[in-house]
Amino acid sequence: xxxxxxxxxxxxxxxxxxxxxxxxxxxxxxxxxxxxxxxxxxxxxxxxxxxxxxxxxxxxxxxxxxxxxxxxxxxxxxxxxxxxxxxxxxxxxxxxxxxxxxxxxxxxxxxxxxxxxxxxxxxxxxxxxxxxxxxxxxxxxxxxxxxxxxxxxxxxxxxxxxxxxxxxxxxxxxxxxxxxxxxxxxxxxxxxxxxxxxxxxxxxxxxxxxxxxxxxxxxxxxxxxxxxxxxxxxxxxxxxxxxxxxxxxxxxxxxxxxxxxxxxxxxxxxxxxxxxxxxxxxxxxxxxxxxxxxxxxxxxxxxxxxxxxxxxxxxxxxxxxxxxxxxxxxxxxxxxxxxxxxxxxxxxxxxxxxxxxxxxxxxxxxxxxxxxxxxxxxxxxxxxxxxxxxxxxxxxxxxxxxxxxxxxxxxxxxxxxxxxxxxxxxxxxxxxxxx
Length: 435
Fold this sequence. Notes:
Layout: H1 13-19, H2 47-57, H3 65-69, E1 73-74, E2 79-85, E3 96-105, E4 114-115, H4 116-119, E5 123-126, H5 134-140, E6 148-153, E7 174-185, H6 188-191, H7 198-201, H8 204-223, H9 227-243, H10 249-272, H11 276-289, H12 296-309, H13 312-325, H14 330-358, H15 369-388, E8 394-396, H16 403-416, E9 419-425, E10 428-434
Antiparallel strand pairs: 1-2, 2-6, 3-4, 3-5, 3-7, 6-7, 8-10, 9-10
Pfam families: FKBP_C, TPR_2
Catalytic activity: [protein]-peptidylproline (omega=180) = [protein]-peptidylproline (omega=0)
TPR repeats: 296-329
């Protein structure tokens, strides 16, 4: 399902009620390279167009689904069908890329909960490849080109027993109104792209065509919020390009440009799925192919990933360079602001933790056994918190440590298999743990 549109700043309800509020949408949440069109509940173009859109896309059945089922023909135990316009041609099968338009309705609801028509972008996918809901895939397999039909599909082939609240209730059957616009028969390795046929690897021209089809499927999966499937397809496209043979420099240049775009898409997907380490790995692949300091999109994605990992200094370097390449970009500005807030918050929390743990602003060179034990226990507790936080890779330590306390830190580093390093902060020598 689609993710909601995120506001860049939270709204204060009291201010909204008294003064109103202006808000901005994070453009990145709308798609892969900013500006992709997604369908969101209640997003029906302008107010003047609402009535016309609702009329055109309104549910064709106002009664119960049990009553509708009696008006349809069963094509399986879980899918019922009623043809509203006959099509022509042959039946569809697997390994065919289809283009459809559809509206999907819940029972007793006027507006669709999903609609390619309201997105104004046709839905394209490969039959049998798992790119869409199983019920939608099986329904389209019964259609001819140009056919328009209504399908009542069991929840077992849609969103299951849990549903997808609040839009999809638990165990909710769905009414799909579908038009099959066209289809294209694909080479075998498009549907099974993870292992391209050996003969296909020899030709970049053939690989290029195959990758273009896979990218269309991956992009459609991304737009529909099916991120795991999008990642799988993008990785398959990368695999094909790496294994093809190149005949000249022109093909190599085009291959590298396509790989950069694919790895960028993977970084976007991984960041959206809260997998920052995987996003960094994807950006590292881009680094092998080009001067990343000239690639704002890759730097932006790496900066986002490093921010999530808690590596604030490196994140700041990436984001500031991205800002230089794309000045005024709202997403980069918003992420830099988030970085600043997180950095200040971390410093305050760090200061508070150490102040409470050690209960002193400065350290004495000579300390009693009880004081050192208290220091050891406090640091040990903080280390356990640090190890348990997968997002944090660095733990800065307080200033003004005594020689005894530094010795204890070395012992704890060995015990927990952490790296203890020193660095200069201004004229002050400080220490930090790293994983």
